[in-house]
Design goal:
Radius of gyration: 42 Å
Number of domains: 2
Strand order of the largest sheet: 1-2-3-5-4
Oligomer: single chain
Order of helices and strands: HHHHHHHHHEHEEHEE
Strand content: 5-15%
Length: 376
């Protein structure tokens, strides 16, 4: 009966050792500190029960690697200390209870434990057996840190290079805007001065025409100055500041009848999208004024739906039968609007009249809203 109870106790101890070692291996990746505690608990159970050395206890090597590779620094150093302490405890346990080893090794155990060289050699062998996985984990850890640091340095260099390029581009934008302002602004200023001078003593029809010329020139000069201001703001802040309402107001101030309406509930758009819509609406209104019949109303409709936003400009054109709108391959006009809209996954649809007197011309820009909303 006593023998049966002893065997049952040994069997329970062996099961506990296997379970604790297995738990340690399972926790080694995500909880190396807990894994280290589990294998130490398995060692304590083995010493107290004087159990045989089990093959399952090779999982200690996995835990030794994991403490150095994945653990926090306190766990790393506890793992290193455990290598030394575990080697000493294993030597003491094996030499004190040689029967726990397989018979082939058991023959040499009495010889080793009675010689200083044997004790030292066994201790160093134990340290090496446990220390190699721990050192390997530490080496892999440092190598991963080195690679991460190298990647961070590369990203920092890329960001610095990109910032330098952006700074150069912003400087170039400011320079080009100033050049445009100097060239176009001077020409418009001359037109305004000539028109104002010609008003003196002019007949009524000529006076009206000259006043319209002066008003359009002043509006265009204001537009050029606004472009320069926007470019400066983008250069200093990196964000555009388009204002669709100001664009419509300037068209009205120039004497054009623009009727604006909104359908649906407006939402905030990303700055890049607003800048694109600003340029598209600017071109739409320019075309409507340029090609539309004088004095006819221009319709502007904003349509907000759940998944899309639509911008439509309608006017009565003054085209002769068979004439079509031209497009500029260098980014102006209709092709320019299409190119801008394609950058934000938008589309442009033109409804052309069959003859000049019976149908309106409508330009419609549509963009999806899924990826165009501004983040807050």
């Amino acid at each position: 009966m006593w023998s049966a109870a002893a065997n049952s106790s040994v069997t329970a101890a062996v099961a506990a050792i296997v379970i604790l070692t297995s738990v340690g291996v399972g926790l080694s990746r995500h909880a190396p500190a807990a894994a280290l505690a589990a294998v130490w608990a398995a060692g304590v159970v083995q010493v107290l029960s004087v159990s045989d050395v089990l093959g399952a206890q090779a999982g200690v090597l996995v835990v030794a690697y994991a403490t150095a590779r994945y653990g926090r620094w306190p766990t790393v150093w506890l793992g290193g200390l455990s290598v030394v302490a575990g080697a000493a405890l294993s030597e003491y346990y094996v030499f004190g209870h040689s029967t726990v080893l397989p018979s082939a090794i058991d023959i040499a155990t009495p010889l080793l434990r009675h010689t200083g060289a044997g004790v030292t050699s066994a201790f160093l062998l134990g340290v090496a057996g446990l220390g190699i996985p721990w050192a390997l984990g530490l080496a892999v850890r440092f190598n991963a840190r080195y690679r991460e640091a190298a990647a961070d340095r590369e990203r920092a260099r890329a960001l610095a290079s990109e910032a330098e390029v952006n700074e150069q581009l912003r400087s170039e934008q400011v320079r080009l805007a100033r050049d445009v302002h100097d060239l176009v602004g001077h020409s418009l200023a001359v037109i305004i001065a000539q028109a104002d001078a010609a008003l003196i003593g002019a007949d009524e029809p000529v006076r009206v025409a000259l006043e319209n010329i002066a008003a359009v020139a002043r509006s265009s000069l204001g537009e050029v100055r606004q472009v320069l201001q926007d470019t400066r703001e983008r250069a200093s802040t990196g964000t555009p500041s388009p204002d669709l309402n100001a664009l419509v107001d300037r068209s009205r101030a120039a004497g054009h009848d623009v009727e604006e309406s909104t359908r649906g509930e407006p939402v905030d758009l990303a700055p890049e999208t607003q800048a694109t819509l600003y340029r598209v609406l600017q071109e739409m209104l320019t075309n409507a004024i340029k090609h539309g019949q004088p004095g006819r109303r221009i319709g502007l409709v904003h349509t907000w739906a759940a998944t899309s936003y639509t911008l439509s400009v309608t006017n009565i054109p003054r085209l002769i039968p068979g004439q079509t709108l031209t497009t500029d391959p260098h980014g102006m006009g209709v092709d320019g609007m299409r190119a801008r809209l394609e950058q934000i996954d938008g589309t442009l649809v033109l409804s052309r009249p069959e003859d000049a007197g019976s149908a309106a011309f409508t330009a419609t820009a549509r963009i999806p809203l899924a990826e165009q909303r501004s983040s807050r």
